[in-house]
Specification:
This protein has 11 helices and 11 strands. A hairpin with a 2-residue loop joins strand 1 and strand 2. The radius of gyration is 21 Å and the shape is globular.
């Protein structure tokens, strides 16, 4: 009798019943309304983002780990397991939820004024308003401190100018959290965050076309041309890079689980395929080379899941550090893409088609490896923790 990879590690026993029920509900909804459409969305490079946001908001998934303002207030581990199920469908779907909840909503929830929270968070939690997060620039990804977007005081207002790049959700967003270099008291400079309604004059978000990865996700630029905002648009509690970096740590946490979801889907698909595919009058699953590949992939999948759950429990206990988030993202993204590529070999030519999810996952994971901290940056964060010597420059 076939055994699920997670059962070999006793993983179901490590997940609480409420968390398991939540994950099952998410998977059922995705099976019903998302998975049947993913091949078409991926091929066309378009998704019904507003409809999806409302459906996922109705499930309580948007900002689910935040407290109050219409948010569910779940545990970090429960949020991670939701991310796992979302990315088991497609990385682009998890990105929509992650950018909404862990970047845009978290920024407002953690660093915003009460007025900003009341204005945006309930609508964003319900999926009635979509948010995006403007940090990365055309020339500044891994080094956000070099950003060129500026915020200049003009009386009681702020005037923003600059360009952001590779911004998930920006083409359909109702609100953008934008980070900029500001000139403040006595000419001192500092990075500040701003809550920018996207219908503000001077704001535009052209979509980026021609992607070969994350095609079931809307990605764009943010262009700011003399965007005038009231003084109340600034996030009052965020000053310096600690603001945006705290948001990135929230989103990276979701990726730790999400990458495992993509890998799990690849392996489950492959296990089913090799059981049915006959080669030389017996199932492909019955060959030693096939079983060796399946065993190696199961080993890395299970270890990655155990790591994700351990980090989730640490986060719930308030004990998770940024370097530990780097451990999880580096390992789980690295192993997930290796699993996706190996699964493709077992599916043969069928593995490159949209009839199966494996190549789609592999292509998506190429982006997941890079965004919200490249593998190299996470290696350096771990190295700095081990040696006490930052080596970023």
């Amino acid at each position: 009798m076939a055994t699920h990879p997670f059962d070999l590690f006793g993983i179901p026993g490590l997940i609480e019943e409420e968390e398991r029920d939540m994950a099952r509900t998410v998977r059922q909804v995705l099976d019903a309304s998302v998975r049947p459409n993913l091949a078409q969305w991926y091929e066309s490079g378009q998704i019904p983002a507003r409809e999806l946001a409302k459906e996922l908001g109705g499930l309580g998934l948007l900002g689910m780990h935040l407290e109050g303002y219409g948010c569910a207030g779940t545990s970090a581990t429960a949020y991670g397991l939701a991310c796992l199920e979302l990315e088991a469908a497609d990385s682009g779907i998890r990105s929509l939820v992650s950018v909404q909840g862990s970047l845009a909503m978290f920024a407002i929830h953690r660093w915003g004024s009460e007025e900003q929270k009341q204005e945006w968070l309930p609508r964003m939690a319900a999926g009635e308003a979509i948010g995006c997060f403007g940090l990365t620039e055309p020339d500044f990804g891994s080094n956000p401190a070099g950003m060129r977007t500026t915020a200049r005081r003009d009386g009681d207002d702020w005037v923003l100018n600059g360009t952001k790049m590779w911004i998930t959700n920006s083409p359909v967003a109702d609100v953008a959290v934008v980070w900029a270099q500001s000139d403040r008291e006595a000419g001192s400079k500092g990075i500040r965050g701003f809550v920018v309604p996207t219908d503000t004059p001077g704001f535009s978000a052209p979509e980026i076309k021609g992607k070969l990865s994350l095609r079931a996700s809307l990605t764009g630029e943010i262009v700011l041309e003399n965007v005038r905002l009231p003084g109340s648009a600034m996030l009052p509690e965020a000053a310096g890079l600690s603001g945006p970096l705290s948001c990135l740590n929230e989103a990276r946490f979701g990726i730790i689980f999400g990458a495992i979801g993509a890998a799990r889907d690849c392996l489950e698909t492959t296990l089913s395929y090799v059981a049915d595919r006959e080669i030389f009058d017996k199932p492909l699953a019955a060959y030693q080379l096939t079983q060796a590949k399946l065993a190696d992939m199961t080993l890395e999948l299970g270890k990655g899941m155990l790591l994700a759950l351990q980090l989730g429990r640490l986060k719930d206990a308030g004990q998770l550090g940024p370097e530990q988030v780097s451990l999880g993202k580096l390992n789980n993204c690295r192993e997930a893409i290796a699993i996706a590529r190996e699964c493709r070999t077992l599916l043969g030519a069928n593995g490159i088609t949209l009839e199966y999810p494996v190549m789609r996952h592999a292509n998506n994971l190429e982006s997941v490896m890079t965004y919200e901290g490249t593998s190299e940056i996470h290696q350096l964060m771990i190295g700095a923790a081990l040696t006490g010597q930052p080596a970023y420059r």
